[in-house]
Design a protein that fits this description.
Blueprint (H helix, E strand, L loop, with lengths): L1 H19 L3 E4 L6 E4 L8 E9 L3 E12 L5 E6 L5 E4 L6 E4 L17 H5 L5 H13 L3 H14 L6 H11 L3 H14 L4 H13 L3 H14 L6 H15 L2 H11 L5 H16 L1
Antiparallel strand pairs: 1-7, 2-3, 2-7, 3-4, 4-5, 4-6
Length: 280
């Protein structure tokens, strides 16, 4: 019985330690409102800080300093950041960080959330908060999370400026083009001359295999809209549909019709695409 008790105690100790260790398996975009550690440097010290979303700047690290792990498993702070806050803007990449377990907060003298966070976030139940955060997550290509936040905004006011086109962006990103098209058509009823909404609609129609409808939308936007910002991009996207279908005849006819190959932004890509089609 004594041996069984000792074995159970050892198992529980190992389990507890396993739950507390650093596991580097989390992306920046999955680390909102979390204390995280970065892989150790050559001295065995881990940089750490708090990752949050700045509504103006996006994904941000509030750097806190470095710590080492003692022989007893405790986190021991070494260098500390300066009194003034050190913030770094983060871009999505392949870097993986470890979420610091709550059980080590006391050792590092951390609160679960910094005092300044609530002030920085503002009203977390407002439509503006949900919209801006959803917009940021869409930009980070975390579109499912972006969609969930934007849907919360939609429940408050579906007519909020920019909301429908941002919802459509989420659905496009997630491959739900039919849903995107339906939302964009609703948005165009409110703002028929909005060039950006028309651009997103053309993109959705192309990817929903509605090429002829996309061409009709494109031609209407070219003739009726004063804003010509997205004309070349729309034309190139339609050309890309012909390229992916391997249709050289339609590809060439579209170039002849739109002169898209004269646009310096796309000229090189088009020459390469045409060369590949001609080899097939």
């Amino acid at each position: 019985m004594k041996n069984i008790f000792l074995l159970l105690s050892l198992f529980n100790s190992l389990l507890f330690f396993g739950q507390d260790k650093l596991v580097f398996d989390t992306k920046f975009t999955q680390s909102e409102d979390k204390w995280v550690a970065f892989p150790a440097d050559s001295t065995g010290a881990y940089g750490y800080g708090f990752i949050y979303i700045d509504l103006q700047a996006g994904l941000t690290l509030d750097y806190a300093g470095k710590f080492k792990i003692g022989s007893d498993g405790k986190f021991e702070s070494t260098t500390k950041a300066a009194t003034a806050s050190m913030k770094y803007r983060l871009q999505p990449n392949n870097t993986l960080v470890a979420v610091i377990p709550d059980s080590h907060f006391a050792e590092l003298k951390l609160a679960k959330f910094p005092d300044w966070l609530k002030i920085d976030k503002g009203d977390e139940k407002s439509i503006g908060y949900f919209y801006k955060l959803g917009y940021i997550y869409n930009g980070l290509k975390e579109c499912q999370k972006g969609l969930e936040l934007l849907q919360k905004a939609e429940k408050i006011d579906p007519d909020y400026k920019g909301l429908r086109v941002e919802l459509a962006f989420s659905y496009n990103c997630l491959g739900n083009f039919e849903k995107s098209i339906a939302i964009l058509k609703m948005a165009l009823k409110k703002e028929p001359n909005n060039a950006y909404i028309n651009k997103e609609l053309i993109y959705s129609q192309i990817n929903n295999n509605q090429i002829e409808i996309a061409i009709t939308t494109y031609e209407k936007s070219v003739t009726e809209l004063l804003d010509k910002t997205y004309n070349s991009e729309n034309s190139f996207n339609i050309l890309g549909a012909f390229y992916r279908k391997g249709n050289l005849d339609q590809f060439n006819k579209w170039i002849e019709k739109t002169k898209i190959d004269e646009d310096q932004k796309f000229k090189g890509y088009i020459a390469q695409m045409k060369n590949e089609l001609e080899k097939k």
